[in-house]
Amino acid sequence: MPITVAALRETAAGERRVAITPEVAKKLHAKGIRVLLERGAGDSAGFPDISYADADFADADAVLAQADVLACVLPPDDSVWARLREATVVVGQLRPYGAAARLSAMARRKLTGFALELLPRTTRAQAMDVLSSQAAVAGYRAMLIAAENSPKFFPMLTTAAGTIRPSKVLVIGAGVAGLQAIATARRLGAQTEGYDVRPETREQVESLGAKFLDLGVSAAGSGGYARELSAEERQAQQQALADHLKGVDVLVTTAAVPGRPSPKIVTEAMVAVMKPGALIVDLAAEGGGNCELTRPGERSEHGGVTILGPLNLPAGAPLHASEMYARNVYNFLELLVKDGALSPDFGDELVAKSCVTRDGQSHA
Fold first, then answer.
1. Would the pTM count as exceeding 0.85?
2. Minimal CA–CA distance to 139: which of 251, 256, 252, 250?
3. Burial annotation 2-14 (CB, 10 A radius, 16+ → b, else e)
4. Domain Alanine dehydrogenase/pyridine nucleotide transhydrogenase N-terminal, which positions (predicted)?
C-alpha cells in the first residue's frame, strides 16, 4: 500500500493558503505516493478540486482516518489530533513556541510532529525554508499596503498640474521580508532606504537600488550575527533614527524573531516627530510590533501618523504563497520518505531539529 499524504482545509481565522497544490500533488503521485485532500481544501487559494488531477478527495474525518502524513499551513483545530491514527506524521508550521498543550496533545496520540519553522537556516535547508518563502510574500504585500494607505503617490509624477515628488520610504530590517519590501518600493518608484543593525546587509540593500541608512552605530558581531548594543550605542542609534524619521513618508518595519516578542525599535517619541500624513506598516505586529504604538490587526493614529499592524500577510496572496509553501513541504518530505515508505533519518539535523513530538514525547 502506498503511503498517503493528506491535507485539510485550513481553519485558522483568515487563512486562505493550502499545504498541497496541484503541482505538488502531481510530483507526489509520480513517486507512488497517494494524495488525499479534504473537499474544497484549495478553493480559497485558487485551486478548485477539479485542478487536482492526481489527488483523491473525501470529507475531513475520512482524510484524517487514512493519512500517514498530514501537511498543514498552520496548526489545525485541536480536535484533529485525536482523529488521526497513532504514529501519523504531521508536517507544517506548528507554532511550537508557547504551545505546550498542543504538543502534549500530539504526543499523547504518539504523533510525530515536524515544525518547519524550526529548520536550521542552512544552505541545504533553503529549499524547504517556509519562513523565508512566506516572508517574501509578506514583504511584498506590506509595501503594497503601504502604497495603498499612504496619502501620497510613491513615484515622481510630472503632470500639467505640476511635479509630484516621490515618497521617501524607509524599511527597517534587511532580512527576506525587508529586502522584498525594499525591492517592491523601488518598483513602485519610491525614494527608498533600508536599515539594519548588521552592516554586512548594506551590499544587499544597495544591490536593490536603495540607499543604506547609516546611523553611525555598528552591531557587527562574530559568525554573521549582530552583537548586543551597549546602552550608550543604543541611545545614539535611537536618536539618529528619530532625527531621520522626521523626513520619512512611509516606514515599514520587519524585525521579527519567531517565538519571541518583536523588538521595540520605534518609540512613541519617534512617532511624535514624524510628519502628519506619515504612515507606519509594522510587519512584526504578530509579535507585538516594532513600534510601541502598534495594535496587532488594527489601524490606529497618533498625532496625524497612521500605524497599521497587519497579521498573516502571506494569506492575502494565497495562490503564490501556497505554491511556494507546498514546494517547501515537498522538499522536506523527501527527507522523510525513502523508497515509498516513511523512514525519517533522525541523524539528519534538518529532521532532528525540526521534530517537536516523537514516540509519545514532546521535544520542543
1. yes
2. 252
3. ebbbbbbbbebee
4. 6-138
